[in-house]
Design brief:
248 residues, mainly alpha, 11 helices
Length: 248
């Protein structure tokens, strides 16, 4: 039996019914089994209802990806914040790897369906949370490059590791590869804690101080700068941080 918005279900409730049906198909049959017709039949709706509520199949896939990542993002948001933001970031890396291996169908839906210039909503939320955590590292002067560059490096490495491990035979799913990659990435993007302020004459010190200033500016509610001046200052700070990385 099929239902529709006109049959008495509120659009929000019907939308969730369809997302849950699509998620069930994804887990049982993979992405190949998620045709619009199959999802409609599984949800008990007419196929045009999916297009009415989601726009197209890509819109449905976006919603299913968000559904699958909901618990992960909530857990990531609730990770404890210690006095060591680098240690907290390492925990976030481990959580990312663990989620990707446990929920590979959702993970590949969000990060494995690459389209030029496009990242799914769930993926954008994950990257935004990663940038937030990296900004905490910048605030204590322990970042070797700009927040965006560090987030891009860490994101690319994390997605690459999970995708590689998912495609490997189950017996090769040991976490050594992930741990080694994590250590390489953290050596590249962060500095060791210093007992005294890092010298501004060192490459890491310049980058760290530039990003610490940027993090401090982000916390200021009112700056004596115009929007254009603030953008220019941020561009200079990012260039100071990333130029050291590209030439060092």
């Amino acid at each position: 039996m099929t239902v529709d918005v006109a049959d008495g279900q509120m659009p929000g409730r019907l939308r969730r019914t369809i997302v849950l049906a699509a998620a069930d198909l994804l887990e049982k049959e993979g992405l190949e089994g998620m045709s619009t017709r199959a999802v409609a039949a599984h949800a008990g709706v007419f196929p045009p209802t999916i297009f009415r509520l989601f726009g197209d199949k890509d819109g449905l896939l976006e919603a299913v990806g968000e559904h699958g990542f909901e618990t992960y993002l909530q857990t990531k948001n609730q990770l404890p914040q210690s006095d060591d933001p680098v240690a907290d970031l390492r925990l976030a890396w481990d959580l990312h790897i663990e989620f990707g291996l446990k929920h590979s169908t959702y993970y590949m839906l969000v990060f494995g369906q690459a389209r030029s210039g496009h990242l799914s909503r769930a993926g954008r939320k994950a990257v935004a949370e990663l940038q937030r955590m990296i900004t905490r590292v910048a605030a204590v002067g322990r970042l070797r490059m700009s927040v965006e560059q560090a987030a891009a490096v860490m994101h690319a490495a994390g997605v690459g590791v999970v995708s590689t491990m998912i495609s490997a035979p189950p017996e090769a799913h040991g976490l050594k590869t992930a741990d080694v990659t994590r250590d390489v990435v953290f050596d590249a993007i962060t500095t060791l804690p210093a007992a005294e302020p890092v010298s501004a004459t060192t490459g890491a010190g310049t980058a760290g101080q530039a990003m610490a200033l940027r993090a401090a500016l982000d916390q200021e509610k009112a700056l004596p700068l115009s929007p254009g001046e603030k953008l220019l200052l941020l561009e200079w700070l990012n260039r100071l941080a990333d130029e050291r990385t590209s030439t060092g």
